[in-house]
Amino acid sequence: MIIVMEASATRREIEAVCAKLVQEGFSVHLSEGVARTIIGVIGDRTRAMGLALEAMPGVEKAIPVLNPFKLVSREFRQENTIVSINGRVLGGNEVHLIAGPCSVESREQLLETAWAVKEAGATLLRGGAFKPRTSPYSFQGLEEAGLEILAEARERTGLPVVTEVVDPRFVSLVGSYADVLQIGARNMQNYFLLKEVAKVKKPVLLKRGPSATVEEWLMAAEYIMLGGNDQIILCERGIRTFETFTRNTLDLNAVPVVKRLSHLPVIVDPSHGTGKWWLVQPMAQAAIAAGADGLMVEVHPDPGEALSDGKQSLTPENFRNLVASVKEIAVAVGRRLSNTVAGEQLPK
Ligand code: PEP
Ligand code: MN
Q1: Which top-level group of life is the source organism from (predicted)?
Q2: What's the total number of domains in the chain?
């Protein structure tokens, strides 16, 4: 249930409602919007409705939330959530481009890619150090050595780093290097991992599971928000369907659906969503047209030699072309690409 307070409600009135709920054994979550405060009530809905909270001073109305997700719902917070990443804001009018290799393979490969994507207009750097691979015989990532390389790339280029954490035991290690913790598609329903990243004061990029419904995806986000972290970026990366031509089927419906159901920002990964480099640009354009708050794109200096996902990786030149094309689409839908790093001098 949510309690919508009157616009004129005083702090004392808000506190009195919260105190009553806590005393009755409910947990409360405040959302202080521009116009009014909303109190999210977690606990038995029928019993909460029986408390006659609407009779308390300052309460406008008590509404049962019918969706199973509460804190991440639009009912709970009407304004879009803005995620702050080292001075960059995601979820507002500006569209962000997260780019970099699938895997960190070497210092040279990562630094070369980081400079290339930065020059092209990326505002965040991606790169996997712990790689969840379908085959145990495939490259598994450089692990902590990869995290060190990512940290060096951030120091040199100024780009914040997004990297995946695959296991609850590694959350503090990855969190000590990363600016954004990525939960991969395969781990979307690893609830122990979700509870651990909820405790870290860092933004979380939550990929949609390959077979997850939008509701299951939002319930995964609910774990993170319930655990105390509302800095969540949802990422559509394609789902499994009967179609085998593409690696996954990029579900762009999910973008406006999530925007309607939730206040959290949503970005799109057309690399994993398609599995083919030549499909990445058109689907990136479509994603921005559909209202995505950003893109996550795999870029490699030499995709033919990549240790993972070369087939879906763009060359730096193809990434530059993608940026030019999505820039126009963003303007057409009343937005613009983030230029937080524009105008910075690149060291020689
Ligand atoms: C990735 O982005 O590195 C990745 C492994 O993607 P996904 O979890 O979407 O398969
Ligand atoms: Mn990949």
Answers
A1: Bacteria
A2: 2
